[in-house]
């Protein structure tokens, strides 16, 4: 018994309560199965579906979260942030997986990956082995948690202290769970079908552990401490406990992968991957799903469940540390605190909650792993090594069920043995996250297979194999070393004393959290091998067909594609309906086979459509890869050779792939048509803008020309005009000539910019004098209009890269634009300042401003404010467009916003045009690190 816990319950009463609870689960499962047989499915409910996802919360949640919070504070949260983030992506990822699984009759995550990559038996077997090695020890953690909590509850006396070797409550729980898994999870041959009894029991267990956790939390907070305020006040009085209520314990101060921060990020990523790739999660979320629309409720209900079950984790941890100090393992606070508070019934409820958490995980995990081992490891081996023996059997269903049931027993025995041999070793304590990292090796191939046509079988095998090997080296073997199963020097010095091979500092990557370190190297090896091998690989017909079926699942029509292949004449005499009926009956039974091919003549050629139907039916029972081997090895010898049948399946897949490719190209043509239509509309708009521009330009050119001609005629016709009047007319002629020159220069500049013929003289320049020159060139314009111009150009501005003349041109354009729109008596301000690695220049005015919807349009060619010609200001509408192109060519950015010291933004008054230039040590063409400076 743990030190510090004096109260205990009678071990026989606890054991009887546990057995009664497990018996109730059997009754619930039996009732759900009978309802399913009567056509009234219990699991056809989105709420049941969402609750079944609660199998994610194992004893690691029920007991381990409190223990983790006792050392890391909020550091327990990443295990639940990952699944929550994944549920936000449900419409993009999970819905696609569900659609594919139903179309392909997927039986497990190993079958999913094997089917995606050309029905590869090797990949399916590799995934099955990796999952078994990585996850089965996690089952040991559940058995240990139940056993330890039983001892804590009973004082370690009674059944758990028997002298009979290997006879304890852990073995009893494993035996009961094995029986449950066999009865309700391995009773039917078609693994793609649902297990309503198992799912209903899992949903009930999710409710039980939630109610138990909330009950303990409420009792601890208000029963033992009088409320949260009192509890937190007592904890704040102790410096070591106050630390747990902040973020430092969980995140530390590290800005890189090292320290607690690295563990936080790595755990979040791994838990998201585990939610998708753990065999039990894939089983309940994908295989057991009856309707993909159930995701709509699970998207919010499952995160809410995670929130509720973790609501009292930190308060329970703080209470346990206040009451027990270091005298009781924090993992046992959930049963220890109710016992200490005199609520034995609540401690028993907490034990049953932990038992629910363990039972749900063990049952679903063992069913999922047994299916993977049977379909993706044992059956491919038997079909390739003993085809004649299997062919002599008229009914292989008993063999398949026997393999799965033996696998369930073996998995649970292996988990129990690991628990007994490892004891309280480091490897067992941390096996939860180590298992997460193991199954995360499936994520690159799975996600890549959903969205990338180019992912290939060799790439997926290479990625999973490389990632798994690195995982074993950086996490699994070090855990054995810290358990004493390997020399400690393996961690401290590396194998054979090679420091570069230290598993926690591989190739000199030191200072990182061990989990973040392993995640980095496994991801590098896994993704690198997957992408690299796929890029240099040439996929076969089956791989191409499956890639199209998975990636384009929302747009493909496989049945229609298969029917197209039915017209190929060289397949008509390949295999008969009788051949397919016999092989389907051998694995699924005669009734299922007769229903599949009802009304067909046994001697009739099967054709590709029936061939694909047989393959899909068999895939539901023995997996996609084994289904192909079974077809190839089971048709009559006179019909077709095995190799020829596989070729036919590949060619059928090729036809489907080409059909899907045609569908994809049709969709691309439709998108191209839409793009052309949009381009035509844009051209029409540009044509209208061109007409407006020509009207504006001719109007602007006519005005100065008219003034020049009129005044010139007066000077010519009246030589007696007095000298003062003559000088005044000549000044106007010069001013209008300059205006005319500016208009023509703007048009020429835009033409040169568009043609790439503008003469650039880019170098390191001093921005201050250039800005001052632009101000001097426009001061008269502001004085003439009665506008106050203020200039803020600080001394010592850093040098920038640019073209002096073009920078002056930009500033002159912005100042002229401000003068044009600022009313008489208004104000304009030019400001220059350094903003990190760029120089920012702002010209702000008190004019009408620029509406939010027009802030991108004002920099287009020919664009001006106003909706009609008469409502537009003078000018061609090219000044801002020229400024934008100059600034972007110099590596800067330009924009407009509300004037910072003007009226409220919603009034639409006051505009601030700004642009940035890179500092001289950055170089041209590199966008500023800060993006748009504001």
Please name the defining characteristics of this protein.
disordered C terminus; five-stranded mixed sheet; 37 helices; 7 strands; mainly alpha; two-stranded antiparallel sheet; elongated; 934 residues
Task: Walk me through this protein's architecture.
The chain is mostly helical. 65% of the residues lie in helices and 4% in strands. It has 37 helices and 7 strands. A 5-stranded mixed sheet has the order 2-4-5-7-6. A two-stranded antiparallel ribbon has the order 1-3. Helix 13 (259-277) packs across helix 14 (279-287) and helix 31 (607-622) crosses helix 32. The longest helix is centred in the C-terminal third of the chain and has 76 residues, at 642-717. The chain is elongated, with a radius of gyration of 38 Å. Mean pLDDT is 76; it is low at 158-166, 254-258, 558-573, 636-648, 866-872, 903-908 and 923-934.
Tell me the number of helical segments per DSSP (H or I, 4 or more residues long).
37
* Estimated radius of gyration: 38 Å
- Strand arrangement, major sheet: 2-4-5-7-6
DSSP strand content: under 5%
Mean pLDDT: 76
Roughly what percent helix?
A: 55-70%
Distance between the termini: 64 Å
How does the overall form come out from the CA principal axes? elongated
The low-confidence runs, each spanning 5 or more residues with pLDDT under 50, are 158-166, 254-258, 558-573, 636-648, 866-872, 903-908, 923-934
The largest β sheet comes out as: 5 strands, mixed
Number of strands: 7
């Amino acid at each position: 018994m743990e030190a510090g816990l004096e109260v205990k319950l009678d071990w026989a009463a606890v054991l009887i309560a546990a057995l009664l609870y497990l018996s109730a689960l059997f009754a619930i499962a039996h009732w759900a199965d009978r309802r399913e047989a009567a056509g009234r499915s219990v699991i056809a409910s989105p709420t049941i579906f969402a609750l079944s996802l609660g199998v994610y919360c194992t004893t690691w949640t029920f007991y381990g979260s409190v223990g983790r919070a006792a050392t890391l504070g909020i550091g327990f949260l990443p295990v639940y942030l990952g699944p929550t983030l994944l549920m936000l992506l449900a419409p993009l990822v999970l819905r696609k997986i569900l659609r594919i699984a139903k179309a392909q009759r997927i039986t497990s995550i190993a079958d999913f990956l094997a089917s995606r990559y050309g029905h590869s038996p090797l990949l399916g077997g590799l995934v099955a082995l990796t999952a078994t090695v990585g996850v089965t020890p996690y089952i040991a953690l559940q058995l240990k948690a139940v056993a330890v909590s039983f001892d804590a509850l009973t004082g370690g006396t009674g059944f758990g202290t028997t002298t009979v070797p290997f006879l304890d409550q852990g073995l009893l729980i494993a035996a009961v769970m094995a029986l449950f898994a066999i009865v309700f999870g391995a009773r039917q041959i078609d693994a793609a079908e649902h297990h309503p009894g198992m799912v209903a029991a899992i949903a009930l267990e999710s409710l039980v552990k939630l109610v138990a956790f909330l009950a303990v939390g409420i009792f601890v907070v208000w029963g033992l401490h009088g409320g949260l305020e009192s509890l937190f006040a007592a904890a704040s009085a102790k410096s070591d406990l106050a630390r747990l209520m902040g973020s430092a314990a969980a995140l530390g101060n590290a800005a890189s992968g090292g320290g607690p921060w690295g563990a936080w990020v790595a755990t979040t990523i791994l838990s998201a991957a585990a939610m998708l790739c753990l065999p039990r999660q894939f089983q309940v979320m994908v295989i057991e799903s009856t309707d993909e629309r159930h995701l709509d409720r699970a998207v919010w209900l499952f995160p809410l469940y995670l929130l509720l079950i973790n609501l009292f984790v930190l308060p329970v941890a703080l209470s346990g540390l206040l009451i027990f100090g270091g005298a009781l393992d924090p993992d046992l606070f959930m049963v220890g605190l109710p016992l200490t508070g005199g609520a034995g019934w609540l401690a028993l409820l907490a034990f049953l909650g932990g038992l629910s958490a363990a039972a749900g995980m063990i049952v679903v995990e063992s069913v999922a792993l047994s299916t993977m081992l049977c379909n993706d490891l044992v059956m491919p081996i038997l079909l390739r090594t003993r085809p004649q023996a299997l062919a002599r059997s008229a009914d292989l269903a008993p063999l398949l069920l026997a393999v799965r049931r033996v696998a369930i027993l073996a998995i649970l025995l292996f988990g129990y043995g690991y628990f007994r041999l490892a004891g309280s070793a480091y490897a067992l304590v941390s096996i939860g996250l180590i298992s997460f990292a193991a199954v995360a090796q499936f994520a690159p191939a799975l996600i890549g297979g959903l969205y990338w046509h180019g992912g290939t079988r060799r790439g997926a095998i290479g990625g999973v194999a490389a990632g798994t090997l690195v995982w074993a080296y950086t996490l699994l073997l070090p855990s054995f070393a810290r358990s004493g199963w390997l020399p400690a020097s393996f961690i401290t010095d590396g194998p054979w004393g090679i420091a570069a091979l230290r598993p926690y500092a591989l190739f000199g990557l030191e200072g990182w959290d061990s989990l973040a370190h392993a995640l980095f190297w496994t991801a590098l090896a896994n993704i690198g091998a997957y992408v690299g091998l796929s890029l240099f690989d040439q996929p076969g017909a089956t791989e191409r067909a499956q890639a199209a079926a998975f990636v384009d699942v929302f747009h493909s029509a496989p049945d229609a594609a298969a029917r197209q292949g039915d017209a190929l004449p060289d397949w008509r005499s390949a295999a008969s309906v009788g051949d397919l009926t016999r092989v389907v009956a051998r694995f699924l039974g005669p009734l299922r086979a007769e229903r599949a091919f009802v009304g067909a003549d046994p001697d009739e050629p099967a054709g590709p459509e029936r061939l694909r139907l047989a393959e899909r039916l068999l895939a539901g029972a023995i997996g996609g890869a084994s289904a192909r081997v079974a077809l190839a090895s089971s048709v009559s010898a006179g019909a077709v050779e095995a190799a020829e049948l596989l070729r036919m399946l590949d060619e059928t897949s090729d036809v489907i792939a080409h059909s899907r490719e045609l569908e994809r190209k049709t969709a691309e043509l439709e998108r191209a048509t839409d793009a052309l239509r949009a381009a035509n509309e844009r051209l029409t708009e540009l044509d209208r803008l061109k007409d407006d521009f020509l009207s504006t330009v001719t109007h602007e050119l006519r005005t100065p020309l008219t003034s020049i001609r009129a005044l010139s005629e007066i000077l010519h016709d009246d030589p007696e005009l007095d000298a003062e009047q003559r000088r005044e007319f000549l000044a106007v002629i010069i001013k209008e000539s300059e205006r005319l020159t500016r208009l023509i220069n703007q048009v020429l500049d835009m033409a040169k910019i568009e043609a790439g013929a503008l003469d650039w003289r880019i170098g390191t320049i001093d921005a201050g004098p250039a800005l001052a020159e632009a101000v001097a060139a426009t001061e008269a314009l502001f004085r003439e209009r009665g506008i106050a111009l203020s200039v803020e150009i600080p001394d010592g501005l850093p040098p920038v890269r640019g073209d002096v003349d073009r920078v002056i041109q930009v500033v002159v354009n912005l100042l002229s634009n401000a003068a044009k729109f600022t009313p008489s008596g208004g104000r304009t301000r030019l400001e220059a300042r350094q903003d990190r690695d760029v120089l920012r220049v702002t010209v702000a005015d008190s004019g009408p401003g620029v509406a939010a919807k027009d802030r991108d349009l004002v920099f287009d060619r020919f664009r001006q404010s106003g909706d009609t010609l008469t409502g537009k200001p003078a000018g061609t509408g090219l000044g801002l467009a020229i400024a934008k192109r100059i600034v972007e060519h110099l590596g800067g950015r330009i924009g407009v916003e509300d004037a910072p010291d003007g009226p409220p933004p919603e009034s639409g008054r006051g505009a601030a045009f700004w642009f940035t230039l890179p500092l001289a040590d950055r170089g041209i063409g590199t966008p500023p690190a800060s993006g748009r400076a504001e």
